[in-house]
Amino acid sequence: MQPSPSSLSGRTGIGLRPEHWREFTETRPPVGFIEAHSENYFGRGGKPLHFLLSARESHALSLHGVGLSIGSVDPLCERHLARLAELVHLLEPALVSDHLCWTSVGGVHANDLLPLPYTEEALAHVVARVQQVQDFLGRPILLENLSAYLDYVQSTVPEWEFLAEVAARSGCGVLLDVNNIHVSAHNLGFDPLHYIDAMPRAAVQEMHLAGFTRNVLDDGAEILIDTHSAPVADAVWGLYAAAVERFGPVPTLIEWDADLPPLPALAAEADKARATMMEALHACAA
């Protein structure tokens, strides 16, 4: 039987990446849960699935995808959905998520997560697509907010209202990436706390933390890039504490995908997230 999302309450975890597969299964670090990128395990067998099944024996799992292309006008890929459904059945994850984005058009796939124009038309389109996916999988999914580097002049709805309305109309949950909020707020010039305050409490069922890098443009302006290649920044820790005060002990994952540190250092970031969560909860109760 799959664990319920509520069973991960108060837990902090790490992404299970190929560089750590063997060490993780040999040492079983005491992290609260693990996350795996769904598409990396679509092969039926082989080393990837062997190590994930082994890790799943001792740790609860969140499956996180990048390939649904939920916002695309292309038809949903039935082959992708079928393989995801097989993986969900095999692994019984507590959470299944993807991104509020599009990744393909006209059958051509971009190697990136691309933002939507936030309009009423796009909202109705995304809600219908989410409902199709959830009906196919027989369970709700979570959608994650992106890091933004531009916005569309066609957008008529703030991103946070768009995401909240998708959740309300479709019944999906929200995977709130706190680092992405910080990056987008810096790049586009909005208050990150406003984004957090706009999210319905019950909708947020998982949070992500990650590191970013700074790029200086030719005109001297600084842009933040969501690279998942560094420790969580102090400003993001502060924003995470505010998010915990609003949403409670939501399961939280450390995302680190490039320039990976040793596994103990990654687990230490999850420990720091747990300590920050407990401090924020204590401050709320005081």
Automatic annotation (TrEMBL):
<dbReference type="InterPro" id="IPR007801">
    <property type="entry name" value="MbnB/TglH/ChrH"/>
</dbReference>
<dbReference type="InterPro" id="IPR036237">
    <property type="entry name" value="Xyl_isomerase-like_sf"/>
</dbReference>
<comment type="similarity">
    <text>Belongs to the UPF0276 family.</text>
</comment>
<dbReference type="Pfam" id="PF05114">
    <property type="entry name" value="MbnB_TglH_ChrH"/>
</dbReference>
<protein>
    <recommendedName>
        <fullName>UPF0276 protein GCM10023165_27410</fullName>
    </recommendedName>
</protein>
